[in-house]
Amino acid sequence: MDEFPEFDRRVIESLRQPLEDKVISVARAKGTAHFPANVLLIAAMNPCPCGNYGFRGKQCVCTPSALQRYRRKMSGPIMDRIDIWLEVDRVLPADLSGGQEGENSEFFRNKVEQARSIQRERFEKIGKKISRNSEMSARDLINVIFLDKGPRQTLDLAAERLGFSPRVYHRMIKVARTIADLEGAENISTSHILEAVEYRPKKFDI
């Protein structure tokens, strides 16, 4: 979903149930129908309506009220349900002229496939009918995921300082477990927790 805050707020808020329960429920007078909605949502947004807020060399022409309206569409409940937030810098002309190539997509494909294989095996061993960390319930996090004292204290401190809701707290464990799986690590370390916390959205300054 490109230009995410430009969607009607009712549309954005209607995503809350599907993102949480992986199901879309449609209620009518004659009954209710449930449709599977286990999707990967990728959303993009500008820092402001004109797109220049916070960029050096470009002046933002948005009024404070326009900034508030734009960012108010990103409610706390919606932000809680998106696991990873990344800020992307403006691409400069010099960056388009070539340079060193990064790791190719085949490399990342292999890493993702290995991590998914680890996750499938983890849940098959305990008889869970899920295949990805993101599908774990709060009870699964207690029964399946082990957090040593150090990583647990780091997560608790981050949750206290950054005001994580219980939903975000649980999602951070899932993200950290996935980071560990991508590295082939048996246990979640403090560095995995810190990286997961870094993926939370920064507060909007107006």
Which descriptors would you attach to this protein?
single chain; 206 residues; mainly alpha; 2 domains; two-stranded antiparallel ribbon
Explained architecture:
The chain has helices at residues 9-13, 16-21, 64-72, 76-80, 105-125, 138-143, 149-162, 166-183, 190-198, and strands at residues 23-28, 31-36. It is mainly alpha-helical and 206 residues long. The protein has two domains: 4-82, no CATH class; 105-198, no CATH class. It has a two-stranded antiparallel sheet. Strand 1 (23-28) and strand 2 (31-36) form a beta hairpin. Helix 7 (149-162) packs parallel to helix 9 and helix 8 crosses helix 9. The longest helix has 21 residues, at 105-125. It is globular, with a radius of gyration of 20 Å. It starts with 8 loop residues before the first helix and ends in an 8-residue tail after the last helix.
